[in-house]
Design the sequence.
C-alpha cells in the first residue's frame, strides 16, 4: 500500500500568518495554482488511487478537489479525524500576538509542543487518538495493495508521519511541511509488524519554484 | 546551514548480497552513471558545496569524487566515522543464506534490527556514537550560510537522520534510501542544541527535469 500525504495549498490564513487550527479560511489564488500544479505532476505518474481522504476544512478540501480533477474519477472522502489541531485561544493569533498574550509560549519544553490543552485547545493525546482511529479505518477499508492520497494539515500530517515511520513513535520528527508538499509512504510487513517507509518527499520548490511557498502558521521548533 | 546527505551509487555488493558493511565493493558502471547524473543535477540547480565529506569505503568515496568533479571546490574530506556498519558474520550474505545460518535474525523485534553485535558485528550504540560524534563536529565548525555534502551509506545516514531530526531518538526510522538518493536537511540552533529538519527526500529516479514549471 502506498500512501501519498499532501499538505494543503497556501490559504488566506497562511497569508495572514495566524494559527489556523479549526478556523476555516479558504485557499488563495496561489494556493489553487499550487494544487493544480501538484495535480498535474501526480497525474503524469499513472497512479491508481483507490480513494482520497481529506480534512473537511476548506483549505484541504479545495486542495483535494483540485488535485482529484487531474487524476480521473476518484472518490474524495471527508475525514473529520484529519482536521488540524484545535489551538484553543491561540487560533487566529500571529506568533507575535500569541507570545504577547502567553509570554512563555515559545519557551515550552519540546515535550509540551504539540499539546495545546494549556490554551483551551487539544491535547497531544487527543490528537494521537483520533489519528489512530483514522489509521485503523483506512487499513480495514482497503486491501493491502490499494493506494490512497491523504490531504490535510501541517500538524495532523506531521503526527501521522512520525507515528508511521518511527519505532517507537518519537515525540518529534522534524520535517518541513510546505504548501502542497507531497510525501510517499509505502507499507511493509517486517517480523509480523506493519511498518511504513518514507520513499520520497517532494516540495513544490523542486517541481515548480514559481509557485512554492513555505508558509506555516507555526513551526517545530519556532524559527526564532 | 543545509546538509545534503547522499547515499553512494549502486555497488557490486548491492547486486550480489544483502549485508554489505565493511566489504569494500566498487561501484558498478550503473553506479558510476548514477553519481555523474546526480552531480550534474546539483550543478544545474546551482547547488554548490562549501565542504564535502565522504566515508572511506570506495563506493562512497568514488560517488563523492564524481559529484565533486562537477563542483568549483573539489576537496573531499574522508571521515572514518561515516563508514558503514561492520556486519560481522553476516557480511556478504544474502537474505536466504543469512536466514539459514542464523534462524533468529529475522525474528528479532524491530527495535533490535540496527544491532549486529550478536553476529560479531557492530552494536547499535557503537555506530550511533561515532555518527553522533561526526554530526556534532559538523555543527560546531560551520556557519549558517554553508552548504555541506555528506556521501555515506544507508545505515550511517539513517543514524544521522535519527540524531538530527527525531526526538526522543527512536530506535529505527523508516526512511528508504536507494542508491544516490539525496536528503536535504535544514539545520538550526535551538536552546543550545542543533536540530535538523528534512526539506526534501529525493531518490535519483525522481530527479525533476531541468524545466518542469
Sequence:
Amino acid at each position: 500500500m502506498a500512501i501519498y500525504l499532501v499538505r494543503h495549498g497556501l490559504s488566506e490564513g497562511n497569508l495572514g500568518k495566524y494559527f489556523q487550527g479549526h478556523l476555516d479560511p479558504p485557499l488563495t489564488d496561489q494556493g489553487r495554482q499550487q494544487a493544480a500544479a501538484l495535480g498535474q505532476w501526480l497525474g503524469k505518474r499513472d497512479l491508481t488511487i483507490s480513494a482520497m481522504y481529506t480534512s473537511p476544512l476548506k483549505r484541504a478540501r479545495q486542495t483535494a478537489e483540485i488535485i482529484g480533477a487531474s487524476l480521473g474519477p476518484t472518490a474524495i472522502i471527508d475525514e473529520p479525524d484529519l482536521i488540524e489541531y484545535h489551538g484553543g485561544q491561540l487560533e487566529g493569533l500571529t506568533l507575535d500576538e500569541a507570545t504577547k498574550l502567553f509570554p512563555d509560549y515559545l519557551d515550552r519544553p519540546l515535550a509540551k509542543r504539540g499539546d495545546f490543552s494549556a490554551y483551551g485547545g487539544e491535547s497531544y493525546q487527543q490528537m494521537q487518538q483520533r489519528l489512530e482511529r483514522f489509521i485503523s479505518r483506512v487499513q480495514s477499508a482497503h486491501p493491502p495493495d490499494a493506494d490512497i492520497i491523504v490531504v490535510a494539515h501541517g500538524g495532523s500530517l506531521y503526527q501521522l508521519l512520525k507515528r508511521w515511520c518511527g519505532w517507537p513513535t518519537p515525540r518529534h520528527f522534524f520535517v518541513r511541511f510546505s504548501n502542497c508538499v507531497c510525501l510517499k509512504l509505502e507499507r511493509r510487513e517486517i517480523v509480523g509488524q506493519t511498518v511504513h517507509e518514507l520513499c520520497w518527499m517532494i516540495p513544490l520548490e523542486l517541481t515548480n519554484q514559481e509557485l512554492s511557498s513555505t508558509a506555516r502558521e507555526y513551526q517545530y521548533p519556532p524559527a526564532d | 546551514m543545509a546538509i545534503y546527505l547522499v547515499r553512494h551509487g549502486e555497488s557490486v555488493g548491492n547486486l550480489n548480497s544483502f549485508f554489505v558493511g565493511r566489504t569494500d565493493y566498487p561501484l558498478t558502471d550503473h553506479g558510476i552513471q548514477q553519481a555523474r547524473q546526480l552531480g550534474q543535477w546539483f550543478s544545474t540547480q546551482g547547488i554548490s558545496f562549501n565542504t564535502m565529506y565522504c566515508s572511506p569505503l570506495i563506493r562512497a568515496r568514488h560517488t563523492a569524487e564524481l559529484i565533486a568533479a562537477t563542483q568549483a571546490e573539489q576537496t573531499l574530506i574522508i571521515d572514518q566515522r561515516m563508514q558503514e556498519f561492520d556486519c560481522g558474520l553476516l557480511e556478504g550474505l544474502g537474505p536466504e543464506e543469512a536466514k539459514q545460518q542464523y534462524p533468529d535474525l529475522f525474528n528479532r523485534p524491530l527495535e533490535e534490527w540496527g544491532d549486529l553485535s550478536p553476529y560479531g558485528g557492530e552494536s547499535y550504540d557503537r555506530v550511533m556514537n561515532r555518527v553522533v560524534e561526526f554530526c556534532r563536529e559538523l555543527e560546531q565548525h560551520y556557519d549558517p550560510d554553508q552548504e555541506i555534502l555528506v556521501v555515506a551509506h544507508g545505515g550511517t545516514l539513517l543514524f544521522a537522520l535519527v540524531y538530527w531530526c527525531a526526538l526522543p531518538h527512536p530506535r529505527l526510522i523508516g526512511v528508504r534510501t536507494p542508491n544516490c538518493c539525496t536528503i536535504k536537511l535544514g539545520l538550526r540552533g535551538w536552546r543550545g542544541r542543533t536540530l535538523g529538519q528534512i526539506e526534501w527526500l529525493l531518490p535519483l529516479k525522481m530527479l525533476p527535469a531541468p524545466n518542469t514549471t
User: Anything to note?
Assistant: The radius of gyration of chain A is 17 Å.
